[in-house]
Amino acid sequence: MKTIALFALLFTPALAGAQVDELNKLGDLYSSQGRYALAGEDYQKSLEAARIAFGPNSSQVAVRLSNLGQVAAHTHRLAEAERLYRQSIAITRQSGGTDHPHLAATLNNLAQLMVQRRKYGAAERLFQQSLHIWEASAGPAHPDYASGLSNLATMHYVRHQYARAEALYRQALEIDESALGPQHLSVARDLNNLGTVAFEMHRYTDAEPLYLRALRIREALLESNHPALQDSLNNLAALYFRLGRPAEGEMAATKAMTIRVKNTLRDGRMLASKLR
User: CA-CA distances (angstroms) from residue 22 to 2, 49, 72, 191, 274?
Assistant: First the structure.
């Protein structure tokens, strides 16, 4: 906290405004890599800069609060995440953004948090609110709408409602392939999700091509140690063991473990260098 306070004191409003997006983009980069401790540091600095440059009730502040909420959720600080999301929603609504895509995104994030807390009724209401805003503002063929459908599907998956989850994941895949093309990370996410549903429904021969296609897209677009590759490889390992193909399962599991170890060592070095 002392570092953040010093950061705030050093920046005039004009200089802080120039740093808001730069710091947020750096936080986005770390978050996309699954490096949430580092992302949180830069999002917090971006938040302080936004408060100086734009005021405490600005849309810029609302966006940074939501980003910090995502970091808290990913690191299992659920009460903190909920507080940050609700602050972001309140600021956005106060500024008249009742149909703004950012409000939809934060409502969707809060809905996912409610799923983690097993408050499924509240989660579904929030999902529907966010989908309504996205449908009105961007249309039902937009990738944001597909992302909302995917997250709603995950709630049904968590509740073992696999048929409902599969239908929504397929709808999300159709939108993403049409809007973004077949070689996009959102498409990989949809394929991976469909593979997981097929796995849980014991349709193992359906799951394998879905998992493999998701992995190929991720290998083509992501760095070799990205956590999404670890996720794909773990899914394939579980599938191969279930199919009675232990050699392939062990190979996939070993690759996944190698990624995990490399990321742990890298993040440890990064944090140690910041503490010096």
Answer: 21, 11, 21, 32, 19
